[in-house]
Amino acid sequence: MKTINDYNFENKKALIRVDFNVPQDENLNVTDDTRIKAAKPTIDKILKDGGAVILMSHLGRPKGEFNDKYSLKHIAPKVSEILGVNVIVANDVIGDDAKEKVANLKAGEVLLLENVRFHNEEENGDKDFAKQLASFGDIYVNDAFGTAHRAHASTAIIAEFFPENKCFGLLMEQELVAINKVLTDGEKPVTAVLGGSKVSSKITIINNILPAIDNLIIGGGMTYTFVKANGGKIGTSLVEDDKLDLAKEILAECEKHNVKVYLPIDNVVADDFNNDANSQTVKSDEIPDNWMGMDVGVESSKNFAEVIAASKTILWNGPLGVFEMPNFAKGTIALGDAIAEATKNGAFSLVGGGDSVAFVKQFGYDDKVSYVSTGGGAMLESLEGKELPGVAAILK
Ligand SMILES: Nc1ncnc2c1ncn2[C@@H]1O[C@H](COP(=O)(O)OP(=O)(O)O)[C@@H](O)[C@H]1O
Ligand SMILES: O=C(OP(=O)(O)O)[C@H](O)COP(=O)(O)O
């Protein structure tokens, strides 16, 4: 795997694809700068070598035309603050302003191009557009893990124009190492915790990770499809009736692979999908009519914590309950505590996927696990075993 550490950037212009697609408030101020901070080590190394940096990113989905709301100029002050360098901002992507600023760029300076998605050619993977971008730099660096599942001009196609001089940035390397630690060279026992809302959205992940794991903990909304498949009563809990056979097949596959499956034994149920609904704890396969499963119960949490404590590698994707409602967040919090404790005791833990990452940040577990992925969709596709175009383009 070729990374920026294989190059000396002295007097070189590095063209770096970053993912600065960050959340903003109504005044367009950055509300979560994780992705910008995550790109800093790569940029710092190149500047320290005596190189110049040209940053390319998208922001939102502006649909191929200029839209001030999606301008990267709103992000630039935060980038300058984090890098400790006054970032130069181009008013366009491949236009006269960008060209002039690239031509005048000196070692130690950082230039931020305008949102690459202001051109339709970006998402279409247009070769000419990629070629024009490529003409700006001597070495292409892909550090945009969050966008690595897109085969776009600046994430994948552009690499063709750098047959020798293309490599991964340090964030990209870190993300790929973390996935490998779980899927290929994780110290055993390896435990995967899968939660979230639906079985159908996790099937491909389950199938792909089975050969790599020893334990599978299942929670969240998909619990009830499994419980019903096993003949249990689930009241009005979330269920995918067309996936009952599939749930049985998954359980059979787990057995075939010697993967131990842990389903919740008790559940917190409510009489309405509402934080203030009446609630009680019942056995998972004895949910009364008109009650729905909202969270895993205390006994399940204890059970899961024991499995986690005995694990050396842990993958976590998907909350165990409706954590957005405080009364039903306890099971997911207990899991966070168990994973934090195991991590403190030497286990490697990776958290990935949109809602799980939102949870760990909101509840302060991000510093207590080994690695929190900066990619939502990209991480899920990696766990599904799909080749990411942004990764493949560098390896080619
Ligand atoms: N018992 C449940 N019933 C309904 N929804 C649930 C339940 N448990 C968890 N969820 C919901 O699942 C959602 C997350 O699912 P998903 O998008 O699959 O996770 P991720 O983004 O981490 O992969 C959360 O919004 C959460 O409220
Ligand atoms: O934030 C992103 O995706 P994510 O929300 O799945 O992590 C990436 O920047 C990709 O953006 P896109 O889904 O508009 O291609």
TrEMBL record:
The gene is pgk. Substrate binds at D19, F20, N21, R35, H58, L59, G60, R61, R117, R150. CDD domains: Phosphoglycerate_kinase. It comes from Chishuiella changwenlii. (2R)-3-phosphoglycerate binds at R35, R117, R150. HAMAP family: Phosphoglyc_kinase. Its EC number is 2.7.2.3. Monomer. One of its GO terms (biological process) is glycolytic process. It is found in: Cytoplasm. GO terms for cellular component: cytosol. Keywords: ATP-binding, Cytoplasm, Glycolysis, Kinase, Nucleotide-binding, Transferase. It catalyses: (2R)-3-phosphoglycerate + ATP = (2R)-3-phospho-glyceroyl phosphate + ADP. ATP binds at K202, G293, E324, G353, G354, D355, S356. One of its GO terms (molecular function) is ADP binding. This is Phosphoglycerate kinase. Pathway: Carbohydrate degradation; glycolysis; pyruvate from D-glyceraldehyde 3-phosphate: step 2/5. PANTHER family: PHOSPHOGLYCERATE KINASE (PTHR11406), PHOSPHOGLYCERATE KINASE 1, CHLOROPLASTIC-RELATED (PTHR11406:SF23). InterPro entries: Phosphoglycerate_kinase (IPR001576), Phosphoglycerate_kinase_N (IPR015824), Phosphoglycerate_kinase_sf (IPR036043). The lineage of its organism: Bacteria, Pseudomonadati, Bacteroidota, Flavobacteriia, Flavobacteriales. Belongs to the phosphoglycerate kinase family.
